[in-house]
Design brief:
The protein has 462 residues and is mostly helical. The protein is built from 19 helices and four strands. The chain starts with 14 loop residues before the first helix and ends in a 5-residue tail after the last helix.
Length: 462
């Protein structure tokens, strides 16, 4: 058992206890970050004269050699080591002897693991952001292509008013845009370096924490050593942001699943993102959308787990905090995979535009506009509402749309109706008269699309 803390103990740790305590099975995931942090730490020790130039260079070369050997497969990370820190340091000592033993000068595993987790999470924030950009690009293309694709808008899963597919896609564009904002905020709050905090109270060595932070591309060092080793709120924030992303993906998936049903037939999912049935040859199942919807709970679980782990921990570091990794790693991988697969599905999906338009026409989605027509011609709104309600009942009995009624039929309900009513309640008029910013008309959507194009062209300044 490769351990860094054996001097105080006279007995070997029980194997079951050792296995329970060890984290190598999952913290090996950030071997790169551990080595990157160690290189920066050693360069700082050299700059401060705590290590000689020769020692500094030997250790840096040794660490880079370990990294190269791990990535080439020459050196395997095995469970004979307690954690990734033990693995790196033990292998460095094997290669350099006593010089390798100086790696840990002025450092604790507490600030080391705090650094590794921040470095790893920071990369995950950036990669998640990049995947959201790709999804937004697909949604923007769909918006551009469908400013005149009329479909029903829903409330309570019932047809409400006509909108366009561009308008519907635009709603999700806004959601995922806000998700990106959350990621950017998290990055700004978390991008401070805990290395140099020691176990909890810093160190007597003359460390240059600003220099270490600069080498690792942080804004600066954390300003309290106890907070530096015991804080995981940035990770809770990230898991919360991932949970919100997954919630948005799940809502979107639910709609795709409904639209894919035989009753709706709004969409045709590409064969690459659906499967068939082992017994029913006619089936084409929206598996990716269903799995995204299902995996949302998995990401929620990671958030709730870490919140529960952290809620009763006194300052500073406690072993409970080892539980910040396993489920968090899984949630990060799950969310990234879901965004990527959902993007591919949306990029290849086919929309049945005629079916969508017919559904809007047959669902009395222009009833509000018919009521507005009466109001504009002098009928009090409450009376107009009642008249149109009666007309809807009449149409249901006749199995027709309001547009299908003759002028003579309409005038039986109100003499106010004139020939111009048909233009006033056409689907195109219903949509395009709603031209305030944020509404579904073509002119309003084109203004929004121009703003979204500008938004996606701007580089995120970190």
């Amino acid at each position: 058992m490769a351990q860094l803390w054996g001097g105080r103990f006279t007995k070997e740790t029980d194997q079951l206890v050792y296995n329970f305590n060890a984290s190598i099975s999952f913290d090996k995931k950030f071997y790169k970050q551990d080595i990157e942090g160690s290189v920066a730490h050693v360069r700082m020790l050299g700059k401060q004269g705590i290590l000689t130039e020769e020692e500094t260079q030997a250790i840096v070369d040794g660490l880079n050699g370990i990294l190269a050997d791990v990535e080439s497969g020459k050196l395997l990370i095995t469970d004979e080591y307690e954690d990734i820190h033990s693995f790196v340091e033990a292998n460095l000592i094997d290669r350099l002897g006593d010089t390798g033993k100086k790696l840990h000068t002025g450092r604790s595993r507490n600030d080391q693991v705090a650094l590794d987790m921040r470095l790893y999470t920071r990369i995950q924030v950036l990669e998640t952001d990049e995947l959201l950009v790709e999804l937004l690009q697909v949604l923007l293309r769909l918006m551009k292509e469908n400013t005149e694709t009329i479909m029903p808008g829903f409330t309570h899963l019932q047809k409400a008013q006509p909108i366009t597919l561009a308008h519907h896609m635009g709603a999700y564009f806004e959601m995922f845009k806000r998700d990106r904002m959350r990621l950017h905020d998290i990055y700004k709050r978390m991008n401070y370096c805990p290395l140099g905090s020691g176990a909890l109270a810093g160190t007597t060595y003359p460390l240059d924490r600003e220099y270490t932070a600069e080498l690792l591309d942080f804004y600066g060092p954390t300003l309290n050593s106890m907070d530096g080793v015991s804080d995981r709120d940035y990770l809770i924030e990230f898991l919360s942001a991932l949970s919100t992303i997954m919630m948005h993906l799940s809502r979107f998936s639910e709609e795709i699943i409904i639209w894919n049903s035989n009753e709706y037939q709004f969409v045709e999912i590409d064969d690459a993102y659906s499967t068939g049935s082992s017994i029913m040859p006619q089936k084409k199942n929206p598996d990716i959308a269903e799995l995204v919807r299902g995996k949302t709970g998995r990401v929620y679980g990671a958030l709730m787990s870490l919140l529960t782990t952290m809620k009763g921990i006194p300052l500073a570091y406690n072993k409970d905090m080892q539980e910040d990794k396993e489920l968090s790693f899984d949630a990060m991988d799950t969310a990234k995979g879901c965004i990527a697969l959902f993007t591919g599905m949306m990029d290849t999906i086919r929309f049945n535009r005629e079916v969508m338009r017919k559904s809007a026409n047959n669902g009395f989605t222009n009833a509000t506009d018919a009521a507005d027509y009466l109001v504009k011609n002098g009928v009090p709104f409450r009376d107009a509402h009642g008249i149109i309600g009666q007309i809807v009942l009449y149409c249901i009995e006749k199995d027709i749309a309001i547009d299908d009624m003759s002028l003579e039929e309409l005038q039986k309900f109100s003499p106010v109706f004139k020939e111009d009513v048909y233009d006033a309640i056409s689907m195109e008029t219903c949509v395009n008269m709603r031209c305030t910013i944020g509404a579904p008309s073509k002119t309003a959507m084109e203004q929004v699309i121009a703003q979204e194009e500008k938004y996606l062209s701007e580089k995120w300044e970190r």
